[in-house]
């Protein structure tokens, strides 16, 4: 009845946009299947820089899909699709393997202290075989777990208190590290936050954007910073783009800076070059 009322044209355009969306989804999903087979993924690495010294402490691994048909597809669009279609597990295992191999190469090149942060989607993390798979990949790639940090979003981490705590404990007992990603965008209670065993809190870009613009922006970040430091977590600020933001974050003892101000995500070769340039700061 609603379609009738709104007239022929509107019904038409509605149906067409739906068909287009369906088509895109089906097509994209098929291509995503192939992408796994054809190895169309590549990891880029965004430097994480110590706020005080300017030295590189690690890199966040960010996946890119270079499709022969579609060109460059941003993870913001294909990761959610991969999650809906159950393809995230395979992609996630590839990402983990590739990141661990990079960590091993870095160690061989003398950079044992550089950490690679790997994004783990909530679906991946909640699967029963996640820990087995992680351990297997560590063994196969001979990566030092001390060089690996798993980034788990606030939302994924806060899902089940008991299950999550024991998984995080297991990961840390194996020598790897945990960061709480996108902090501030979820709904974690202070109670959960106190109980979660993680190493690093990543303040989401949406808060960094408030610096200098919104009167209370800085104060909110300062409050997060104090809370994190009381809990003995280190803090990474994400999406830092300007010198003003950097200086402000330095003035409130933020530990680590990640963002375009220092560098966009880079292909491996450029990431290693970036690392070497900043080594003797
Ligand atoms: P994220 O984990 O929050 O990653 C940070 C995103 O912010 C990256 O986008 C990065 O390129 C971007 N970024 C970093 N600094 C700046 C800055 O200064 N300004 C701006 N405007 N953006 C900045 P990217 O690479 O497009 O990834 C988007 C999201 O896709 C990631 O958000 C993450 O949720 C997901 N993702 C990426 N790679 C993977 C992966 O390997 N596995 C999983 N499960 N998810 C991934
Ligand atoms: Ca992340
Ligand atoms: Ca993030």
Would you kindly provide a written description of the structure presented here, covering whatever features stand out?
The protein has 281 residues and is α/β, with parallel strands linked by helices. The protein has helices at residues 2-5, 8-38, 75-84, 88-108, 122-126, 130-141, 154-157, 161-173, 190-195, 205-208, 217-230, 243-251, 268-277; strands at 41-50, 56-67, 71-73, 115-120, 148-153, 177-183, 200-203, 234-237, 256-257. It has an 8-stranded mixed barrel with strand order 1-2-4-5-6-7-8-9, surrounded by 5 helices. Residues 1-7 have low confidence and may be disordered. It binds ligand C2E and calcium ion (CA) (2 copies). Ligand C2E binds at residues 46, 62-63, 74-76, 79, 92, 95, 119, 121, 181-182, 239-241, 259-260, 265. Residues 60, 119, 151, 181 line the site of one calcium ion.
The helix content is: 40-55%
Question: What characteristic shape results from the CA principal axes?
Answer: globular
Structural category: alpha/beta
Strand fraction equals 15-25%
Instruction: Name every ligand kind in the structure.
Output: ligand C2E, calcium ion
Query: How many helices does DSSP assign?
Result: 13
* Mean of all residue-level pLDDT scores: 91
> What's the main sheet like?
8 strands, mixed, barrel
Given as residue ranges, the uncertain stretches (5+ residues, pLDDT < 50) are 1-7
Give the termini distance in whole angstroms. Answer: 69 Å
How many E strands? Answer: 9
H/E series, N to C? HHEEEHHEHHEHHEHEHHEHEH
Radius of gyration: 21 Å
């Amino acid at each position: 009845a609603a379609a009738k009322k709104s007239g022929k044209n509107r019904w038409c355009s509605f149906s067409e946009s739906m068909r287009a969306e369906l088509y895109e989804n089906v097509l994209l999903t098929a291509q995503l299947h192939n992408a796994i087979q054809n190895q169309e993924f590549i990891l880029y690495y965004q430097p994480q820089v110590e706020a005080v010294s300017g030295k590189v402490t690690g890199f966040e691994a960010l996946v890119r899909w270079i499709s022969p048909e579609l060109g460059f597809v941003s993870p913001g669009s294909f990761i959610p699709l991969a999650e809906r279609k159950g393809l995230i597990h395979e992609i996630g295992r590839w990402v983990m393997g590739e990141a661990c191999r990079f960590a091993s190469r870095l160690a061989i090149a003398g950079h044992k202290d550089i950490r690679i942060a790997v994004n783990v989607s909530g679906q991946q993390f909640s699967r029963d075989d996640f820990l087995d798979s992680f351990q297997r990949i560590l063994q196969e790639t001979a990566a030092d777990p001390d060089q690996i940090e798993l980034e788990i979003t606030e939302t994924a981490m806060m899902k089940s208190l008991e299950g999550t705590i024991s998984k995080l404990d297991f990961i840390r007992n194996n020598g790897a590290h945990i960061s709480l990603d996108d902090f501030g965008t979820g709904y974690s209670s202070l109670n959960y936050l106190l109980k979660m065993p993680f190493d690093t809190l990543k303040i989401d870009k949406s808060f960094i954007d408030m610096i200098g613009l919104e009167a209370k922006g800085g104060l909110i970040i300062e409050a997060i910073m104090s809370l994190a430091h009381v809990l003995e977590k280190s803090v990474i600020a994400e999406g830092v783009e300007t010198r003003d933001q950097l200086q402000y974050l330095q003035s409130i003892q933020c530990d680590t800076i990640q963002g375009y101000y220092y560098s966009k995500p880079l292909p491996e070769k450029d990431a290693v070059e970036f690392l070497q340039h900043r080594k003797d700061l």
